[in-house]
């Protein structure tokens, strides 16, 4: 089986069954046949494969499945499909006829489409999911929207239930969500009281006016709390924005909201769906510029737009897993592509010769440098720029290194194809760790491009592909269907 096929096949298993390693089974008595009627039962043996618990486990024993056999013969001649007759609906295209050879496969596809039957093993070792140390109130960041509540109040702060275009969509307060910290709920409720007292309207749609848009709350393991209020500036003069900032300051520092004990309060006047700090600067309303989080005995300064894993204790498991399967040593040079605020680089720095972090966001690179200085780490370099532009400039230097390991942790959109081609062309990289929270999305396309022998780009056509070797899911999001997947790739042997 080729690398492309193996990657695609493994994805379907990982995405659907990482958290539940239950077997795919058809219950007895389930008599399904599209377009048929039950008349006489027969018992037919059908091989039923269970999920792989650990690579090397054998498949489950054959189970018996009862199905129904029609007493009358099936008509196999397809009806002709012509133009729609007046007053009659057009006949839909027919599926290929079910034969003796395909009947059981077709039944399985209809009744149990999620059950994999056509593979003998995964392309690499797949560990059981590593659990999060914290299950309750583990989220260190929450973003609240503002919309109509079930009571019709347009200034309800919480999460949307329903689709954005659905007129029945409502905003529900997070009162009973168990994965959210109580202090976050308190800040959201206090902010709701504030905006309901404000003369400014909520901004549900940009073209309908309104000011209040979102609230982002962050907190650390030591109890520090930051709130960022997002407004739409509309055509408000600067004096009005300053008045809003002063009202927020008075409410949360001296007024009723002081019970929230915020350490940092920001406001961002953003005219778009999302704005970078360059597009719309975060304005400090009150308190400190940053709050400080601890992870793996390191300190990280968190600013309003800093990226940090949503589950701090789970992140410690994640980064320890990356270090474990990367098998780094004091002679290793670590390439941290999409480094963000430098968490991977700084966590690995004590165990390697040096780290090189690359990120397209200038603000994130600035934060990474500050975090390195905060922890007195001197063997790290952080470069702002596109990976496909920066990596070629490092080729000569990397060629002199005895062991180069790359770690990529992109956003849900995955790596740009040019980045994949650049990584494949960089011969010094012999080992790659891919970290993703959505392996069934664009990351799967990256997996395929990393391992495919068929590359359209002439510049990367003769490069050696990467082969998946090891995969570890980490439950960074308890009580949800999501996992963080850590996957090890190695260069194929030529």
From TrEMBL:
Highest taxon above the source species: Eukaryota
Classification via CDD domains: AdoMet_MTases
Example GO biological process: RNA processing
Stored Pfam families: tRNA_U5-meth_tr
Keyword Glycoprotein: no
Region (Disordered): 68-98
Binding site for S-adenosyl-L-methionine: 309, 359, 409
Record's keyword annotation contains Coiled coil: no
Enzyme class, first EC level, given as a word: transferase
Molecular function GO labels: RNA binding; tRNA (uracil(54)-C5)-methyltransferase activity, S-adenosyl methionine-dependent
Catalyzed reactions per annotation: uridine(54) in tRNA + S-adenosyl-L-methionine = 5-methyluridine(54) in tRNA + S-adenosyl-L-homocysteine + H(+)
Active site: 437
The EC number(s) this enzyme carries: 2.1.1.35
Alphabetized UniProt keyword annotations: Methyltransferase, S-adenosyl-L-methionine, Transferase
Regions of compositional bias (Basic and acidic residues) in chain numbering: 68-85
Similarity comment text for this entry: Belongs to the class I-like SAM-binding methyltransferase superfamily. RNA M5U methyltransferase family.
Descriptive protein name: tRNA (uracil(54)-C(5))-methyltransferase
Protein species of origin: Scylla paramamosain (Mud crab)
